[in-house]
Amino acid sequence: MKKYILLASIATAFTFGLSSCSKFLDELPDNRTELAPENVEKILLAAYPTSTMCAIAEMSSDNTDAYPDNFSAFNRLQEDLYKWDVTSEREDDSPHALWESCYMAISACNQALSVVEKSSNPASLNAVKGEALVCRAYAHFLLANVFCKAYSNTAKTDLGIPYMKEIETTVSPDYKRGTLENVYTNIEADLLEGIPLISDNGYRVPKYHFTKKAAYAFAARFYLYYVKSDKSNYDEVIKYATLALGNNAATVVRDWQSLGALDLNGDVEPNAYVDANNGANLLLLSAHSYWGYIHAPYGLGERYAHGPLAALETCRSNGPWGNYTASKNESIYYMFPWSNSSALPTKIIIQKVAQYKETVDAVAGTINGYIINAAFTTDETLLCRAEAYIMKGSAFYPQAIADLNVWQSAYTRATSPLTVESINTYYSDLPYYKPLEPTVKKELHPDFTFESSIQENLIHCVLHARRIMTLHEGLRWQDIKRYGIVIYRRFISNVGTSITDELGVDDPRRAIQIPSDAIIAGMEPNPRNK
Length: 530
Hints:
With about 525 residues, the protein is an alpha+beta fold. The protein has helices at about 55-60, 75-80, 95-120, 125-145, 180-195, 210-225, 230-245, 255-260, 270-275, 290-295, 310, 380-390, 395-410, 420-430, 455-470, 475-480, 515-520, and strands at about 5, 15, 65, 280-290, 305, 340, 350, 355-360, 365-375, 485-495, 495-505. The chain is built from 17 helices and eleven strands. Mean pLDDT is about 90; it is low at about 1-30.
């Protein structure tokens, strides 16, 4: 993990110190701590990735624009991610860090599963086995989402990532990537075996573990991405989302009105957002990251940021629920955006991600950075179910509208319920997005076909709601990949806006390049056009 030295204040600059992260499988497993049935659950503390895709996905998505050279990038990594370049950077928030972190978590899962298996799978270890299986599935799911294409009818031939089920016993193993279909098949198998075994008992802080509801939410998102030609995956989304949400979703979604009423200054809102006592948070993960500095209200990383033009599609956008206004108490959204006050503002943010730090050397000002990531929430699970209902066809539109109205009531001040007709009219009347004439309606090129323009407009509504609500958390990048949305790189200055690059429907850069270490070791890289 790379350490940072705080020079004067957060708003000034960082100097990068040299340190190294643990290498995945640098040591043989025999050199690790001995595990036994009576202490095996301890290794599951390492079964959760300590890196997130937030910075990777947000910088890669259409939530980010470029600003003039008088604003600086936080580091080379931020610039590489924004430009969809292959990066050699290895620090926190990098593809290398995510890759290493996920496979270290997978290794811990496999260690735990080995102990359970050698103990002849006693019922007393069912909870350990269940958590290990679901954690293993989740780490592979993260890797697939970042380093592979979106799941489609070409998954049989698309490159996957190595699905690790065994403890490695050699120093230089030969890993094969296999296919994306194989990865998803294995994720499903681990989920289906692991979920019934999970127990909510015994966790000191349950929100930092896969409880039953967190696992259900994971399954709902997984099946939403695992698109089947017969649409049977959407039945699974609905099933698991309902298990996570219960019989009355309105009672378990976040109280956005109370959250939005908190002070915009400092970490008040972000701390409340990731409160482990908040029932809307189903899984919280602590991660080594400086994303809290990069995206948030600091004079850092302003060269590539979510600014005023992008905000017209997100937290300052109009929608079928009403129009945004620049007044905290009157805006259609309870969550009011913060903006920096420079002549050319580059940051428009929603306060959800706080930056935490561990002081390594108080004299030198050396710190390690952390964030808390709300990996699964009731609100996002609700929108997964709404999308599944829409994709099942017109007979299920009433259920989708019901879910969208739960979201609207929680997130906005709107008083008129959404209907199929109001949503269809709103998005039908809206012109398609052009990079210099932005709207929230972008052309969709999914691997499947819509049954009607009404179905497509309902999907526009779900994508719009999800993009606003999950801003800064990385999920927009997955929607871009899943729906084949073309995005652009815009350079914004005082003299105008220009287009510098375009990510087309079939652009191979949609799959982030795997780390150079893996390529050097012989693993097949993701293809590139140049």
